[in-house]
Predict the 3D structure of the following.
Amino acid sequence: MEQNEEKEISGFSKLSKRDKIAWLAKNFLYANPVEIVKEFAEYWHDNVEAQKLLDGFSENTLTNFPVPFGIAPNFKINGKVYAVPMVIEESSVVAAASNAAKYWLTRGGFKATVLSTKKVGQVHFVYKGNRDKLFRFFNDQKETFKEDVKHLTANMEKRGGGVLDIELIDFTELEPDYYQLRAYFETVDSMGANFINSCLEEFGKQLREKVESSVIFNDSEKEVEIVMCILSNYTPECLVRAEVRCKVKELGTFDNGNMNAEEFARKFERAVNIARIDPYRATTHNKGIMNGIDAVVIATGNDFRAVEACVHTFACRDGVYRSLSQCEVKDGEFRFWLDVPIAVGTVGGLTSLHPLAKRSLELLGNPNAKTLMEIIACTGLAQNFAALRSLTTVGIQAGHMKMHLTNILASMQANDEEVSKAQTFFSDKVVSVAAVREFLEKLRSASFGSNLNLG
Ligand code: MEV
């Protein structure tokens, strides 16, 4: 029986990297610690300083977890061609983005516009006194709140950002005595999380102090309890639109000439409309968009969880979870677009600390945050276009399975000759783990060639 006591530890963080791994090997993997340390050490960076930097990003680090860093070239966005860096482990995603980018390259490319860049933060507090007095006090004092954070906002203001506005919101009908200060920020080229949170904590402190010293309130009304001060990852006004359009007849033909441009456009539009009305389909549809968005967000050292959280809230802003993209086929024109909130930065955070994030940004011409938002949104739209083009024509599996086959063969340690034979064999067959295993077993068996039925 497993001994739980052996799985508990205090001071794990203080152990050396090797000791952490050895302890885990002994108590969780039941394997030879020397072997396991060797295995984890294979992924350590050769350069000690580089490894130190990576270790510093997180805690209790054992090793690095490599994920492919790929490039989708030929992205023409607002007239400029980009080679877009993408970090993603899923096969077909970079290939799909590259295909879609090339397809639109000859049809005018992508257009993108940042519609707004507002960020949001909240001071959640409890106040049991008189509501009307609280609002009167807030309206009187509102501007002084902004003044009180000047020491925090001075640098941001020099760069064109700062606190845009603050409002007081009454939530007492939903939660007893609960109010909120909702503040709006412009953080220019930084994601701005630390800046926003620092301002919010100062607002919270000022709120308590100001209410306490205000003559508006009598003694029994002077208490504000701050519940928490934190930015909101829901930034519906940090919004970018990405779009492609062309004449329907310029779309070309599909499925080896079996589908004409008009048929494709109608079917594609239908597929998008389905994702507008059915949350089951919308979730998968949006997942495809996020394949592209996340990959660039990660490659540029930004916070993909923040982007994910925001995007999905945005997708159900009218109460139903819907597709983020829309399509219109009208007057002989095909138009496909995406409105998506993306709060990212090109300065601060990991963007300049992580050597590959820095390189990614350099590959993109060191964009400002708005241009990065545009590039990310276009990659999401490209991904969505590629997925829907496959789904509405030849189906998704044809392309997926080719890549899947490569992964399965790698997991079965196939050599170059076996890979090549498998690719030929499966070119017109359904790929599955079992089928590939069977193929390899036969190929590897001594009797291969005499009794293998390759037909
Ligand atoms: C797979 O990662 C993404 C797709 O399922 C997206 C879609 O269905 O639109 C192909």
Summary: The domain at 119-232 is CATH 3.30.70.420 (Alpha-Beta Plaits). The longest strand covers residues 238-247. The chain has 16 helices and ten strands.
